[in-house]
Here is the input.
Amino acid sequence: MKTDIILCGVGGQGILSIATIIGEAAMKENLYIKQAEVHGMSQRGGDVQSNLRISSEPIASDLIPHGQADVIISMEPMEALRYLPFLRKDGWVITSSAPFVNIPNYPDIEKVKADLEAIDNVITLDIERLAKDNGVPRSANVILLGAAQKALGIDYEKIEEAIRRVFGRKGEKVVEANITALAIGKEAQK
Here is the structure.
C-alpha cells in the first residue's frame, strides 16, 4: 500500500488539520508516514501546501515528485489546479468548488471550473455550503476529508477514530461536529 497525497489551500482553511487526522489514522494502521509542509504566507491567507506520503514500506523522501501524487485534496479550486503537475495520470482531485478570492488577479472562476471538469477523476463539492447547511460551519475541511476517504485507502472507521483523538481535547461537541462533517463528505462524494 502506498498513497501520496498533496493537501493544499489557503492559510486558515484547515489543511494542516486534515494532514494531522490522516497521519494519525495511518499511524494507527501501522503504516509509515512522511510529511512536508509549506506554510507560505498562511498568516495572511497565502498558499498552504503539505506533502503526505503513506506506505506499508519505508519511505525515503517526504517530497512527492511531479506526476506521482495519487490524490490532491484542495480547499480551494485554483490551488487544486496549481498542483496538477504533481498528479498521476489516474490520480484523484478532491476539491472545494468555492473560490477563496484573496488576490486581485484571481482567474475567472468559470475557467477554473472548466479546467477542473477536464480532469478524469475529480470530485468538486461546495463544502462551505454543506458545512453551513448541516450546522457544522467550522468543519468544512473535514467534509472534504470525508469525500476523499476512499481515494486515501484508509478505512473510514480509522479516520473517525483519528478525529476523536485529534479533537478530543477540544471537547465532545467539537468531536461530534467533525464526525458529522466526515459523514457528510462521505455521502456527498457518492
Remarks:
- Helices lie at 15-28, 77-82, 109-117, 127-133, 140-152, 156-167, 172-188.
- The radius of gyration is 15 Å.
- The mean pLDDT is 92.
- Strands lie at 2-10, 32-38, 47-55, 69-74, 87-96, 122-125.
